[in-house]
Amino acid sequence: MPKIKTVRGIENRKVVSQKEWLVARKKLLLNEKKFSKLRDELNLQRRKLPWVKIEKEYVFDGPSGKVTLADLFNGKSQLIVYHFMLGPGWGEGCEHCSFWADHFDSVNIHIGQRDTAFAVVSRAPLKEIDSFKKRMGWQFRWVSSFDSDFNFDFNVSFTPRADQGAQGHLQLRSAGHGH
Predict the structure, then answer these.
(1) pLDDT (0 to 100) of residue 162
(2) Cα–Cα nearest to 168, from 96, 102, 112
(3) In whole angstroms, what is the distance from residue 108 CA to residue 103 CA?
(4) What is the rounded distance in angstroms from the CA atom of residue 171 to the CA atom of residue 168?
(5) Where are the alpha helices (DSSP H) in 50-125?
(6) Other C-beta atoms within 10 Å of 82: how many?
(7) What pTM was estimated for this model as a whole?
(8) Which of 160, 171, 14 has its CA nearest to residue 80?
């Protein structure tokens, strides 16, 4: 008999009647609705965070050379920075970040139409980022903060230990000229 591949999360499931399943599904739906309301509230709190004046010049390595944080705004008044967990020497990025990154190229068009630029930042050196990005077939703007304090200053890299990782997503907005 051939071995059946087990998919994480579906092993040892109980099989029940349609009626029992419906009761369980309705119970889950109540929790999903609570979660959605909590997520909406959290998103509102994030949007209401105060802005911070950035006085330090951050320089990143990009495909065309050095770029500053101000350059990442690309003439827009807002910048969304996604902190992709890919540290020096990892070889592969975070599975969660990779899932979301699979969607960045398509939403980037919509974000750009809303006076917003988008950039992905990782601690890995640019050569490692480019290799992984090419393998995954992604086109979005991705820069390296390897020689920068950027991740640490914005509290998305909590220790210098790259193997620990730090999940974080930061939205920066500018008043005026995108600085």
Answers:
(1) 46
(2) 96
(3) 9
(4) 10
(5) 69-72, 95-101, 104-112
(6) 19
(7) 0.73
(8) 171
Structure-token pair, residue 44: 């509102």
User: How long, in residues, is the chain?
Assistant: 179
CA pair distance 123, 125, nearest whole angstrom: 7
pLDDT in tens, 117-137: 999 999 999 999 999 999 999
The pair of structure tokens assigned to 45 is: 């709190």
Structural contact between residues 93 and 129, judged by C-beta atoms closer than 8 angstroms: no
Measured CA to CA, the distance from residue 108 to residue 122 in angstroms comes to 18
Residue 116 corresponds to which tokens in the numbers above? 């917003």
Please report which confidence band the pLDDT of residue 95 belongs to, taking 50, 70 and 90 as the band edges.
very high
Question: CA 14 from chain center: how many Å?
Answer: 35
Q: What is the pLDDT of residue 174?
A: 37
How many Å separate Cα 12 from the centre of its chain?
32
In the beta sheet, which residues pair with residue 59?
Answer: 68
- Whole-angstrom distance, CA of residue 84 vs CA of residue 19: 43
